[in-house]
């Protein structure tokens, strides 16, 4: 026994001396002894006495290998072992530490109240086995005062750290290491020969993975793929005896360089693994459209949901298209695109870009002698009206004084627009009226467009409004025409006497003359204009804002004169069940309410049609690129029922991805140079990266790798358009990402995956595990019942006595108090009972 303050010990005898002195005169000697003993115990406690005892309780650190080199059966066996030891530890102490590349704390899902359910370490941490780090962490967790032991459950396939240092650390601490060996992954009968996949794909794109594998016999195999540890899906393939070649598909929505891993397994034949680096980037889309954002909302939502970066171009295509992978014309009059930019778009497609034309109501056919560059790139061309005899159109324009200003200006523009879109064989006339009528352009062929447009430009407003005479004059003059289609458009902003206009309208219908009416503003006779159009099977339009007049008139004329626009309900009919229809459910698609007539080119791929003669969706390969035409629209007009149809997003996503280029403007490849332990990246620039095929400058390029590795790359120009970059990576293994600090199309991000040794290990390293157990005094594969055996060892521990002495002093004081007060307590109880009894008898 030892004391921290031994000088207090003499004072501990003072209470005893005092008790002896008072003994002869005391009437309560027992109480005196108790008081003296309590005081002596307090003084002894103040001296802080302690004694040395020996502990045989065991502190056990259970190190469990959860690296990728162990099998699922090994993990289950290790989990059962940990469960058995924890349940049978009794008064001993245990700590379970999973480890792989580094030790880790068990996850909440791995520890249940009933049992351990250990799992593989996550991500890159699983691809390594560091026994040294595991032993060091296990030794650090052992508490003092208990017999220390370490239990290692592993296959012994060390590829990181040093077992020699681990053994030395355990020897220095005097801690034996018991070893329970795991079987490890069995060497599979399946032999993976080759795995081929694109080095770079677009985010969300469905890409192929081609696998060549040898099997000793026929079996059904399962192919599983993961990206950055996240599952991508499972597919099954039937293997035959010998060499098998098959294709799996995957799709990843991330961006940048990622690790793609796969596993092919078959019952009784084991598993074959592969890993690779894959670079993903978001495709950049140019959307050329004048439609308001609300009309494009469904299309934009589909593009953004499928990882496309979209740039709108309401003013038409720019001069350069290098940064885009897909160009979309949405409801755009392509005749307004300048010829140099049409040539640039054709060259863009030839170099591998994608081109999509979504027709819409702005598509207008123009007669021309030869195709332009944009038309050559498309798999379908606008169809001319189906009437070779031509059409006749008369425009009746109200020139009353109320039309002065913007109304008259837009009316002239509408008439000019109609003239520009008629063929030379078509006939056109312009009749103006106020209180009387006058032919501004008598009915004639639309050959001399310049003179006709000059006459229209000279129309000026004046006078009142008399519709009936002008309508009768127009009908009288158009009736003798030999044209197959005869159409009259009446444009007015006022109210007039109806005259015999209803009779004329019915007669016009009988003679195959259609009449449409356009009312501008609020001061029009709507009922009159509607009946005139209805009785002659034309259409009635009413505009409060005249800004849309030109488009309305042009569309009406095209529709009623055998134009390319067809406004009727049609159902998409499948001609070729191509892969872009997969998962769409096109058979359940609602009707479209219109489309534009196109002619399919002979070598194009017709996928959907609107009727037996008109295509709906057609595509083709044009040099290195792809182009497609959708002859309806993608908004709340002709496709009003489609935008709420579940297959809308899937169909358009498939079309967009089908058109993406597969030949990049710049190609980057990475490989490992074993002679110098360097990562080598080659950049080969395409023609369109910069003129004349060289970048403006070389950006800073860095390599990022496992465990925080980061290194700049030294870039050297090897030849015109060819650059090579190097970075030393030593013996590091895993996924390396090479990228510029600022985005560069000439130097795109690229990944390289260096196979870890962990995935090349099979079975167990029994020799190394025997060495660890023997060198530290541990046991190899001991019975679980003997793991907590201290082996005759005991650990000296200090037992503090002062808490017990204070407790003894308190107990003696309580006893002395009871001894002193018990008679008074009894008398008090008797008195209370005596007082209470008479009261109870009343």
Describe this structure in words.
With 842 residues, the protein is α/β, with parallel strands linked by helices. Helices cover 27% and strands 31% of the residues. The chain has an 8-stranded mixed β-sheet, sandwiched between helices. Strands 22-21-20-23-24-25 form a 6-stranded mixed β-sheet, sandwiched between helices. Helix 3 runs antiparallel to helix 18 and helix 5 runs parallel beside helix 6. The chain is elongated.
Q: How many strand segments?
A: 41
User: Helical amount among residues, as a percent range?
Assistant: 25-40%
Query: Helix count?
Result: 18
Largest sheet: 8 strands, mixed
Which of globular, elongated, flat, extended, rod-shaped describes the shape? elongated
Percent strand equals: 25-35%
Determine the structural class based on helices, strands and strand pairing: alpha/beta
Sheet with the most strands: spatial strand order:
16-15-17-18-32-31-30-27
User: How would you state the average pLDDT, rounded?
Assistant: 85
**Low-confidence residue ranges:** 687-693
Computed over alpha carbons, the radius of gyration is 46 Å
Euclidean distance between termini CA atoms: 69 Å
Short description:
The chain is α/β, with parallel strands linked by helices and 842 residues long. Helix content is 27%, strand content 31%.
Name the features.
842 residues; alpha/beta; 8-stranded mixed beta sheet; 6-stranded mixed beta sheet; 18 helices; 41 strands; 27% helix
What is the element layout, followed by pairings?
Layout: E1 2-3, H1 9-12, H2 14-22, H3 29-46, E2 49-55, E3 58-65, H4 72-87, E4 93-99, H5 131-141, E5 147-154, H6 163-173, E6 177-181, E7 191-196, E8 200-202, E9 206-215, E10 219-227, E11 230-239, E12 242-251, E13 256-266, E14 270-281, E15 284-289, H7 297-305, E16 309-312, E17 326-330, H8 339-350, E18 354-358, H9 373-377, E19 380-382, E20 391-398, H10 406-420, E21 427-433, E22 437-445, H11 449-457, H12 467-478, E23 485-492, H13 501-510, E24 513-520, H14 526-535, E25 540-543, H15 549-560, E26 565-566, E27 573-574, E28 595-596, E29 598-600, E30 605-611, E31 614-622, E32 625-630, H16 647-659, E33 666-673, E34 678-685, E35 701-704, E36 710-712, E37 714-719, E38 722-728, E39 734-740, E40 750-754, H17 766-776, E41 795-800, H18 802-841
Parallel strand pairs: 3-4, 3-5, 5-6, 8-14, 15-16, 15-17, 17-18, 18-32, 20-21, 20-23, 23-24, 24-25
Antiparallel strand pairs: 1-2, 2-41, 7-9, 9-12, 10-11, 10-13, 13-14, 19-29, 21-22, 26-28, 27-30, 30-31, 31-32, 33-34, 34-38, 35-36, 35-39, 37-38, 39-40
């Amino acid at each position: 026994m030892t004391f921290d303050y031994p000088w207090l010990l003499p004072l501990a005898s003072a209470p005893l001396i005092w008790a002896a002195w008072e003994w002869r005169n005391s009437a309560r000697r027992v109480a005196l002894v108790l008081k003296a003993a309590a005081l002596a115990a307090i003084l002894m406690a103040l001296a802080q006495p302690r004694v040395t005892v020996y502990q045989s309780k065991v502190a056990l650190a259970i190190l469990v290998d959860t690296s990728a080199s162990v099998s699922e059966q090994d993990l289950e066996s290790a989990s059962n072992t940990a469960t058995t030891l924890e349940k049978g530890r009794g008064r001993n102490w245990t700590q379970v530490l999973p480890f792989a590349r580094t030790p880790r704390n068990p996850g909440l899902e791995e520890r249940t109240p009933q049992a351990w359910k250990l799992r593989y370490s996550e991500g890159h941490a699983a691809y390594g086995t560091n026994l040294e780090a595991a032993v060091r962490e296990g030794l650090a967790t052992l508490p003092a005062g208990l017999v220390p032991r370490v239990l290692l459950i592993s296959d012994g396939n060390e590829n990181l750290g040093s077992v020699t240092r681990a053994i030395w650390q355990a020897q220095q601490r005097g801690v034996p290491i018991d070893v329970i060996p795991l079987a490890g992954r069995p060497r599979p009968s399946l032999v993976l020969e080759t795995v081929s996949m694109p080095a770079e794909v677009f985010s969300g794109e469905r890409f192929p993975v081609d696998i060549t594998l040898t099997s000793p016999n026929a079996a059904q195999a399962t192919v599983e793929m993961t990206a950055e540890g996240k599952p991508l899906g499972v597919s099954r393939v039937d293997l035959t005896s010998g060499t098998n070649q098959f294709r799996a598909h995957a799709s990843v929505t991330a961006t940048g360089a990622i690790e793609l891993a796969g596993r092919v397994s078959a019952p009784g034949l084991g598993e074959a693994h592969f890993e690779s680096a894959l670079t993903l980037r978001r495709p950049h889309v140019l959307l050329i459209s004048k439609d308001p954002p609300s009309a494009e909302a469904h299309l934009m939502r589909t593009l953004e949901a499928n990882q496309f970066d979209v740039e709108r171009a309401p003013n038409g295509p720019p001069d350069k298209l290098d940064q885009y992978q897909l160009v979309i014309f949405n409801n755009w009059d392509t005749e307004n695109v300048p010829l140099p930019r049409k040539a640039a778009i054709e060259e863009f497609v030839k170099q591998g870009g994608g081109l999509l034309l979504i027709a819409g109501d702005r598509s207008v056919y123009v007669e021309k002698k030869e195709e332009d560059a944009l038309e050559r790139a498309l798999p379908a061309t606008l169809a001319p009206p189906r009437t070779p005899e031509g059409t006749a159109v008369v425009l009746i324009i109200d020139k009353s004084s109320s039309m002065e200003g913007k109304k008259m200006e837009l009316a002239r523009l509408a008439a000019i627009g109609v003239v520009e879109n008629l063929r030379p064989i078509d006939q056109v006339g312009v009749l103006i009226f106020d209180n009387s009528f006058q032919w501004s352009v008598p009915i004639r062929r639309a050959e001399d467009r310049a003179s006709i447009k000059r006459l229209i430009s000279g129309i000026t407003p004046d006078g009142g409004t008399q519709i009936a005479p002008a309508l009768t004059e127009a009908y009288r003059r158009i009736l003798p025409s030999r044209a197959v289609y005869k159409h009259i458009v009446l444009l007015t902003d006022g109210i007039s006497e109806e005259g015999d206009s209803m009779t004329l309208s019915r007669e016009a219908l009988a003679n195959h003359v259609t009449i449409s009416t356009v009312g501008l503003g609020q001061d029009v006779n709507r009922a009159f204009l509607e009946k005139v159009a209805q009785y002659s099977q034309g259409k009635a339009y009413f505009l409060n804002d005249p800004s849309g007049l030109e488009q309305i008139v042009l569309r009406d004329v095209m529709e009623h004169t055998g134009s390319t626009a067809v406004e009727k309900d049609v159902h998409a009919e499948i001609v070729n069940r191509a892969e872009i229809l997969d998962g769409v459910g096109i058979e359940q698609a609602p009707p479209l309410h219109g489309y534009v007539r196109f002619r399919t080119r002979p070598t194009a791929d017709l996928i959907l049609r609107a009727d037996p003669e008109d295509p709906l969706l057609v595509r083709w390969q044009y040099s290195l690129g792809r182009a497609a035409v959708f002859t309806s629209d993608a908004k709340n007009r002709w496709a009003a029922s489609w935008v709420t149809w579940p297959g809308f997003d899937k169909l358009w996503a498939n079309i967009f991805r089908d058109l993406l280029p597969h030949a990049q403007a710049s190609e980057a490849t990475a490989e490992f140079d074993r002679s110098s332990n360097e990562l080598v990246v080659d950049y080969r620039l395409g023609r369109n990266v910069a003129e004349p095929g060289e970048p403006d400058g070389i950006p800073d390029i860095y390599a990022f790798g496992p465990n925080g590795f980061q290194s700049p790359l030294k870039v050297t120009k090897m030849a015109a358009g060819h650059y090579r970059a190097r970075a030393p990576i030593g013996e590091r293994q895993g996924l390396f990402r090479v990228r510029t600090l600022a985005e560069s199309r000439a130097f795109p991000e690229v990944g390289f995956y260096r196979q870890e040794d962990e995935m090349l290990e099979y079975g167990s390293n029994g020799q190394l595990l025997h060495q660890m157990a023997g060198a530290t005094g541990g046991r190899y594969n001991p019975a679980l019942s003997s793991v907590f055996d201290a082996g005759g060892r005991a650990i000296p521990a200090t037992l503090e006595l002062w808490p017990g002495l204070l407790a003894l002093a308190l107990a003696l004081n309580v006893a002395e108090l009871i001894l002193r007060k018990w008679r008074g307590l009894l008398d008090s109880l008797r008195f209370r009972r005596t007082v209470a009894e008479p009261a109870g008898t009343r």
